[in-house]
C-alpha cells in the first residue's frame, strides 16, 4: 500500500522535480541515453515503480526489447554504443556512492567526458541525480507501478 502521494501532499516539491524533467527533455542529452540512465539507476535502487515507468516510456519511444532486457548486464551485452556505456558507468558510480572510497573515479568521469560535451555532461549528472531522487521518493512511499508518486 502506498504510504502517501507526494504530488498531493507536497505539490510544490513535485512541480520542482517535474521542472528538472522538463529541463532534461530539452537538454540535448540523447533521449535513448536518458531512458537507459533512468532505467539502470532504478534497477540498482530496486524501484519497481520507476523500472516499470521508464521501461514503458523507453519502449514507447522506440527502444528495442534487447536493449531494455539487457541494460542490467550492459557491460556484456553488445547492444550499446560507447557513449551509452560511458553514461551507464557514470550512472552506476553516482548511484552507488557509498560502495567505494572514490565513488566516481576519474576514469569513469573522463570516459563520459569523451562522449558528451560540457552541457550534455551537466545534463547527464542532473539526470542521474534526479532519477535517484525520484527512486527514493517512490521506494520510501511504497509507490506501486501504475499509481502516482
Automatic annotation (TrEMBL):
Q: Specify one Pfam family.
A: CMD
Gene3D superfamilies noted in UniProt: AhpD-like (1.20.1290.10)
Q: Which InterPro entries match?
A: AhpD-like, AhpD_core, CMD-like
Q: Where does the Carboxymuconolactone decarboxylase-like domain start and stop, copy by copy?
A: 11-92
Q: Which SUPFAM superfamilies match?
A: AhpD-like
Tell me a Gene Ontology molecular-function term this record carries. Answer: peroxiredoxin activity
Protein name (Swiss-Prot/TrEMBL): Carboxymuconolactone decarboxylase family protein
Species assigned in the record: Microbispora oryzae
Q: What is the lineage of its organism?
A: Bacteria, Bacillati, Actinomycetota, Actinomycetes, Streptosporangiales
Amino acid at each position: 500500500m502506498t504510504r502517501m502521494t507526494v504530488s498531493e501532499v507536497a505539490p510544490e516539491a513535485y512541480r520542482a522535480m517535474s521542472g528538472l524533467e522538463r529541463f532534461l527533455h530539452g537538454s540535448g542529452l540523447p533521449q535513448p541515453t536518458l531512458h537507459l540512465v533512468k532505467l539502470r539507476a532504478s534497477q540498482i535502487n530496486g524501484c519497481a515503480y520507476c523500472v516499470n515507468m521508464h521501461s514503458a516510456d523507453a519502449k514507447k519511444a522506440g527502444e528495442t526489447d534487447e536493449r531494455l532486457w539487457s541494460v542490467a548486464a550492459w557491460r556484456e551485452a553488445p547492444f550499446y554504443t560507447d557513449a551509452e556505456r560511458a553514461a551507464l558507468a557514470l550512472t552506476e558510480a553516482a548511484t552507488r556512492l557509498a560502495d567505494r572510497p572514490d565513488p566516481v573515479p576519474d576514469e569513469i568521469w573522463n570516459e563520459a567526458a569523451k562522449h558528451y560535451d560540457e552541457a550534455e555532461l551537466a545534463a547527464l549528472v542532473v539526470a542521474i541525480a534526479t532519477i535517484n531522487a525520484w527512486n527514493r521518493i517512490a521506494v520510501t512511499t511504497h509507490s506501486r507501478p501504475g499509481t502516482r508518486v
